[in-house]
Amino acid sequence: MSEYFNVADIFGEDVFTDKVMKERLPKKVYKQLRKTIEEGTELDLATADVIAAAMKDWAIEKGATHYTHWFQPLTGVTAEKHDSFITAPNPDGTVLVEFSGKELIKGEPDASSFPSGGLRATFEARGYTAWDCTSPVFVRKDAAGAILCIPTAFCSYTGEALDQKTPLLRSMEAINTQALRLLRLFGNTTSKKVVPSVGPEQEYFLVDEKKFLQRKDLIFTGRTLFGAMPPKGQELDDHYFGTIRQRIAAFMKDVNIELWKLGVTAKTQHNEVAPAQHELAPIYAEANVAVDHNQLVMQTLKRVACQHGMKCLLHEKPFAGVNGSGKHNNWSITTDDGINLLDPGKTPHENIQFLLVLTCILKAVDTHADLLRESAADPGNDHRLGANEAPPAIVSIFLGEQLQDVMAQLISTGAATHSIAGGVLETGVKTLPNLEKDATDRNRTSPFAFTGNKFEFRMVGSRDSIASPNIVLNTIVAEAFSEACDVLENAEDFEMAVHDLIKQYANEHQRIVFNGNGYSEEWVEEAARRGLPNIKSMVDAIPALITPKAVKLFGKFGVFTESELKSRVEIKYEAYAKAINIEAKAMIDIASKQIIPAVIKFTKSLADTINAVTAAGAEASVQAGMLKETSALLGETKAALDKLIDVTAQAGAMEEGRGQAVYFHDVVMAAMSELRAPVDKLEMIVDKDMWPMPSYGDLIFEV
Ligand code: ADP
Ligand code: MG
Fold it and tell me: Which pLDDT tens digit goes with each residue over 625-649?
């Protein structure tokens, strides 16, 4: 490929797109597949056979040797098992290449080792993968060659969801049904489908691979467990939106090319706040495609980084004291004929349908703030949410001046009569045009912000799948729509009833609206007065999944059964405990085998120096002072290490479940901090040549 090229020429090159389907499938088959994609009708096996054959021919032309059902078990990452296209050899020793409709539609990986939270005992470990034809099939090319990847859902023998995709698709159905109900009430007879659109902005760090390989903490846990702050951090803001260095630029170029070929609409790239931190955002897509594409984005970032001698860190908090990484989940709901239900228009006060949608969302988020918080919980995100970093752990909604004002009118007088206009931003320079100002400014500290025609949920962790937050968003909003429709469908005077409902919701749920500084201590106090939950950690967030309120919500819309929820709770406690256990053991390993030996060497060299200096008749009080300080810190380190060894062993011996997870959070994490403190002080004393690993400065300023 030439160094310069036309994006349009390569975009979607490795995707079995609608265009390819149209070209390669018989008309009747194509029509049937479209019907399945759009309306969810079942595909018969004969049709599936024809599609599979066409898909195989197309993939083989791209050099594919294998196919795989690509699915998303509850590990946070994707899973795959490759099968080649070859059949048993002919008598003459040649083989045929084949791919049947059955193989396309259904798979049965022996997947007994994936987390199931008790939904499957290993002796009945059958798990099935089923083709999700609403997310396009693609050919992925890497060191394994070219593989035909078929996005699939993953369920147990008894139909329980063991993955992220199944509940996501269920939640999309729920919001589709309820939003259509609502639209019909407002006289819309033409829209056939409503889908949630999602655009996730992905943050990540890049570090040099050679340095990465000298940090066992990064290798084992994805974050640094030790590390003193460098003299310079992010205080100058000179990295944010800065010129992209050539090494990083070359990486970004390759990432974009790979993503475009896979049909991922990589759009925006820039340097982020922290040194060595960057961001990539695609153009929004239907929720389930966006979820799949975000997985491809994360995998591509990692793979291409290696090709450039770097490592991509997706962890939420790779470096203490430096901004961490998240994902902004931009979400809206749109009809198949292009109506965005979150578009307020120029005069939102007159847009009754919008006001009902908006107040339903206020109600949904207020009622289920705990579930939204939980949907963004993972062990890494505990270091960001509520830990003095964006965003706070308290869920609140930012509406902006214009909508806030409309809400205030609704609440005070029961009717909104005007909308604050955007106005013009005068640049004050004759040669520059005056800019039309949005009626809404930005608020970067809000976890759930209205940004013009969409909501931006900013709590999501950088490493996490975006499936959970979108499952929750779709379902809670479906519930609010459904409850509104229940009232409105039975109303005698529709206009009056809508008006009353908007007013009622605005009144009852105004406590969730907050337009001020979400980072401030005052907000924490104010939120407590308002009775909003402030859930600080993953272990405290998990129980939200099985409150009676949650069981009723997810059950009503068929998104999760109670046993599916229970299994997820179990899986999450286990995942948390495992993550902290690995971190604790990595710390123990590094402190015992690398740090303490290095410090001992340093004290020996100091002692030798003191002897030599004194023998030469000179004064060695500085060296003696350093030796004393180092030895004291070494003592603290050893004591903290022994304690960490002890509590980690105790945690490991506990029965799996909430008790163990809480112990890891309360006791083991605290012991980890106690070990880190003296070690970080030692790093500032010990000779750099003797310190066993690259420093923060080496990692983030010398990529
Ligand atoms: P920023 O929040 O950094 O200003 P943008 O406003 O450009 O960035 O959008 C960020 C993300 O939101 C992008 O992925 C974009 O495609 C997505 N987005 C834009 N409009 C919508 C929408 N109506 N629904 C969902 N996502 C959207
Ligand atoms: Mg954003």
Answer: 999 999 999 999 999 999 999 999 9
